[in-house]
């Protein structure tokens, strides 16, 4: 089926609508066709910090671009005000595309925004995106499931509303599964300690991927006993994703992505070693 054939069955952006569009994990080539069409027809693009500039530039020259990105302790606009902004723009009859890093409904607060809009009678469409867990792990060569290692995968957030990490640790620390932690880099030492305290061996492989799928991607791997210190030594910063489970041990063998501004690296060590790979690697 050709792209024009698809477009016949999917209308472009409508006046007074809000489109919650997942922009993917960083690489603009992972953006969906539906998302690209909607951005190209938008009156207003409201976008987050993690959205690739190349995706924002798909908008028409006359379109308004509004940045509402959030970083740790630095929110350009509080969430309640973002909700109100989307509502007011739609009420003005504008075609509003809300670009969110990853997927809108996976730690993207898309559900919160949609609730406000639906309560006000605003039509909303949700366009899924490649969530960071899937995209970033794939670019790092870490399969989230594997018959020999993990029969389930769990996504969890390392940042809660009260600023505390209070998760279901017994459930997360089960064997034979992979756990992906979003937004937990500043609490990594506590997170690793909780996994050990709830039954996972300290030597369980664990890794952090910084700016995954982009030219600045870095991967730091070790285990629950060593990872936090390794990340501290390497100066890893957000946006970063943490993966815990024996699948991380496959990284040295399966790593395939070379950031374009990096020379080819030397052969990677065996899975038991702690390694850093990518931009800024030692």
Any chance you could write out the topology, listing elements then pairs?
Elements: H1 3-9, E1 18-22, H2 33-40, E2 44-47, H3 53-56, E3 64-67, E4 70-71, E5 74-75, H4 79-91, E6 96-100, H5 110-119, E7 124-127, H6 132-139, E8 152-157, H7 169-172, E9 177-182, H8 188-197, E10 205-210, E11 218-223, H9 227-234, E12 240-244, H10 251-254, E13 275-278
Parallel strand pairs: 1-6, 1-7, 2-3, 2-6, 8-9
Antiparallel strand pairs: 4-5, 9-12, 10-11, 10-12, 11-13
Helix pairs in contact: 4-5
How would you describe the overall organization of this protein?
The structure is a single chain. By secondary structure, this protein is an alpha/beta fold. It has two domains: 3-127, 3-Layer(aba) Sandwich (Cobalt-precorrin-4 Transmethylase, domain 1); 132-278, Tetrapyrrole methylase, C-terminal domain (Methyltransferase, Cobalt-precorrin-4 Transmethylase, Domain 2, 2-Layer Sandwich), CATH 3.30.950. The protein contains ten helices and 13 strands. It has helices at 3-9, 33-40, 53-56, 79-91, 110-119, 132-139, 169-172, 188-197, 227-234, 251-254; strands spanning 18-22, 44-47, 64-67, 70-71, 74-75, 96-100, 124-127, 152-157, 177-182, 205-210, 218-223, 240-244, 275-278. The strands form three sheets. The chain has a six-stranded mixed sheet, sandwiched between helices. Strands 3-2-6-1-7 form a five-stranded parallel sheet, with helices on both faces. The protein has a two-stranded antiparallel ribbon with strand order 4-5. Strand 4 and strand 5 (74-75) form a beta hairpin. Helix 4 crosses helix 5. The radius of gyration is 20 Å and the shape is elongated. The N and C termini lie far apart (47 Å). Mean pLDDT is 89; it is low at 262-275.
């Amino acid at each position: 089926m050709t792209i024009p054939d698809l477009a016949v069955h999917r209308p472009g952006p409508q006046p007074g609508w809000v489109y919650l569009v997942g922009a993917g994990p960083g690489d603009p080539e992972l953006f969906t066709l539906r998302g690209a069409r909607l951005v190209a027809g938008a009156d207003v693009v409201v976008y987050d910090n993690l959205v690739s500039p190349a995706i924002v530039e798909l908008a028409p020259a006359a379109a308004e671009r509004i940045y509402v990105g959030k970083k740790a302790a630095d929110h350009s606009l509080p969430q309640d005000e973002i909700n109100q902004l989307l509502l007011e723009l739609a009420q003005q009859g504008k075609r509003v595309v809300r670009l969110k890093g990853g997927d809108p409904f996976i730690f993207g607060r898309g559900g919160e925004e949609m609730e406000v809009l639906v309560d006000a009678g605003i039509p909303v469409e949700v366009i899924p995106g490649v969530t960071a867990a899937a995209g970033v792990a794939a670019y790092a060569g870490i399969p989230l499931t594997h018959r020999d290692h993990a029969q389930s995968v769990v996504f969890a957030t390392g940042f809660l509303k009260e600023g505390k990490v209070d998760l279901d640790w017994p459930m997360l620390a089960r064997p034979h599964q992979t756990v992906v932690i979003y937004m937990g880099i500043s609490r990594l030492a506590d997170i690793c300690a909780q996994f050990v305290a709830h039954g996972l061996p300290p030597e369980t492989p664990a890794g952090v991927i910084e700016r995954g799928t982009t030219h600045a991607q870095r991967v730091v791997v070790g285990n629950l006993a060593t990872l936090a210190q390794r990340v501290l030594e390497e100066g890893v910063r957000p946006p970063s994703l943490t993966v815990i489970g024996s699948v991380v041990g496959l990284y040295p063998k399966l790593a395939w992505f070379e950031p374009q501004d990096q020379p080819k690296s030397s052969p990677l060590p065996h899975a038991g070693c702690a390694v850093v790979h990518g931009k800024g690697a030692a």
